Amino acid sequence: ERRYCTLFELSSEGIMRFGYKQPIPVDLSVDEQLDLCYQSIYIAEANNALAQMFGREAGEELIGLTLNDFHDRNSEVTQTTMRDWINNRYSCH
Questions:
Q1: Whole-model pTM above 0.85?
Q2: Alpha helices by DSSP H, 1-93
């Protein structure tokens, strides 16, 4: 755990961990899952490098932000990325 914390805190790469307010059933349609993602997913943990990417000083300032706060839901690129993520069973490839 200490090694994880050190890597997380000292990394020059932006790192975040998402939390979910509620489970998202994977047997729903992609559109339904996408809607639930925007309602449920929030930043549970973020390092300072990520905060700086968002123009903030510290990772703690990002905690609690939802996908609606930092994703442009109307962006075609965002929609394609999110749909691919859902279709890949919430895994990035």
A1: no
A2: 2-10, 30-40, 48-53, 67-70, 76-87
Q: How far apart are CA 13 and CA 38, in angstroms?
A: 24
Q: Which residues of 24-35 are buried (b: 16+ CB within 10 A; e: fewer)?
A: beeeeeeeebbe
Q: For residue 30, report the phi and psi dihedrals to the nearest 5 degrees.
A: -60, -40
Q: What is the pLDDT of residues 10-28, one digit of tens each?
A: 899 999 999 999 999 999 9
Distance CA 30, CA 1 (A): 35
SS3 category, 36 = helix
* Inter-residue contact 36 to 24 (CB < 8 Å): yes
Encoding tokens for residue 67?
Answer: 């996908």
